[in-house]
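Quick review question:
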């Protein structure tokens, strides 16, 4: 499990963009972005493996458009 700070470092996305990608009501919603999991009353985390897979998928999409 990785916390928000590490997700930011891994993806290069801002805090707000990470939350926008997770919000179904947002115009930036990305259904492929990994879901956050509540780990305590006031803390969330993401599965490391899902973040890695999402990044690989985005990398492949970007490279296939070239």
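Suggested answer, residue by residue:
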């Amino acid at each position: 499990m990785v916390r928000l700070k590490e997700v930011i470092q891994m993806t290069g996305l801002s805090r707000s963009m990470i939350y926008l990608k997770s919000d179904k009501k947002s115009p930036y919603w990305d259904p492929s972005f990994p879901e956050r999991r509540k780990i305590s009353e006031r803390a969330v985390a993401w599965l490391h493996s899902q973040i890695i897979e999402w990044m690989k998928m985005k990398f492949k999409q970007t490279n296939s458009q070239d």
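Why it works: The beta strands are 37-40, 43-45. Residues 4-64 form one domain.
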